[in-house]
Design goal:
CATH superfamily: Winged helix-like DNA-binding domain superfamily/Winged helix DNA-binding domain
Helix content: 40-55%
Number of domains: 1
Strand content: under 5%
CATH class: Mainly Alpha
Order of helices and strands: HEHHEH
Structural class: mainly alpha
Largest sheet: 2 strands, parallel
CATH architecture: Orthogonal Bundle
Shape: globular
């Protein structure tokens, strides 16, 4: 799962559901969230590029949490609702 997150291009976003679907388990979006929450290298494996289906930011374990996630996405030019 983290390999799929690693492959998200700079400045692009995916939802937890997108990753679950790519894994072949469309209902496993919560498992994707749990895996992101335990990501051992949040800048190397860019879990900040994974957002909720509603387009909102949900959780981030690096730095100052959601503030850091939002900052990283803005630096990459990603558009977040």
């Amino acid at each position: 799962m983290l390999k799929l997150v690693y492959e998200i291009p700079y400045g692009e976003l995916r939802t937890y559901a997108d990753i679950a679907i790519e894994m072949g388990h469309p209902n496993a979006y919560r498992a994707v969230g749990r895996a992101n929450a335990t990501n051992p290298m949040p800048l190397v494996i860019p879990c900040h590029r994974v957002i909720g289906r509603d387009g909102k930011l949900h959780g981030y374990g690096g730095g100052e949490g959601l503030r850091t996630k939002e900052w990283l996405l803005k630096m990459e030019g990603a558009v977040v609702v």
